[in-house]
Write a structure and sequence with these properties.
By secondary structure, the protein is α+β, with helices and mostly antiparallel strands. About 20% of the residues lie in helices and about 35% in strands. The termini are far apart.
Length: about 425
Amino acid sequence: MRKRKRVIQTIWHLFFLLMVIVPAVVLAQDESPWSEVFDADGNLLPGMIDLGMTTENPAWMNVDLPFDQSLSLEANYHRFQTPSGNIVVLPSASTLFFMAMNPQESGLANSIGMVGNGYGSIIAFLGNVAGDSVDWQRLQQAHPEYQQPEDFWNAVINGQENVWSWFSGFGFLTNLISLSWNDAALRFMYLMYLNGAQDCASIPGGCAGVAATPPPPRQCPDTSITMQQPAASIQKIAPNNPLVVGQDTQTRRGADVQVSVVIPPVIFTWYEPIYEEYEVCATPTPYGTPVCTTESIFKECRQHIEQLPDSVASLQASASLSADSKAWIQSKLGQTHYGAYVHQESFTLFPGYGHWAGGCDNGGTCRANGTALQIPFADPGTFNLQLRGTTSGTSFMGMLITQPRTFNADGTLQVYVTLPALVP
């Protein structure tokens, strides 16, 4: 129970450190390498390349135990690459612990800086995780110059002291193992490695996923997509008061249903970088001729607005007798008219009783219309009309812009019956 309490306290201490460290992000100066990592509010800038998580099993994360046993833990880093080729590393909590214990072997010493409260935050972190396992009395007898625990941890981080020589037992392993199981979200220290993309073999995590040539900084705004929802309808168009076909013995007219769909164009805005070519000549030698080359210089971003059609790809329509109408036929109508029953409670309109057609105009607006004629409704009551459809999606210059969408519409249709009245 005591060990469990200690682990919980350690995790709370880590979250407290996180609350202290994160606001320090905004202190990065514009002239520092951090200026291309964070904005003024401490958020990662859009130009950062997320390299994802990288794991490895370095020797410096092994712990020798009694009876020739050992404990091997996994190093875990979440890394980002800046537009200029620097690498920012976020080690997990357990990985950070061992990096601090082994600053040279782990590459911590090669970092040019970190976001937070400098090495002081790591010192507090080390003290919370392993401070109770250090034999402070023996340490102070051998090194009276360490007036405070912070002095000792600072020497460890700087590579001047071997922490493993001063541990009394292995009680700290409980905290470390707990961290290794739970520290996926405990990443509170950003380490900066200059020119890490060019010298990726020497940074934590190695060259996995690193872009050898960082992409050039974006010169034009991002593309944007604006789209409106399709407008769809389904409704009865004739006759005004349709009778059940059993009473319309001459024409068995039934009813007609019409569907309509209008899909506004998808507005796709993109920007084209425009360059101008200039002839650049080197200063000639007294007896030579100038050497001239043509260079392209960025001039402006040209905006393009495309109205892309998103045509109707499929259309289905149906009519189904409402639950209330079925109940009325089977109960109330059946009591006064012996043998009343539901003849056909549902109809498939498209395909079935009609067809639909669609197309798009030059402005990118797409339409579809269809009519189902003479639907033989044999039951009185309210029929629920349903329209369901999908679009084709949009593309531009062979590139998918938007995925297919679904749309729907509902309506009702009333079918009548003439009931004779009994006159005394």
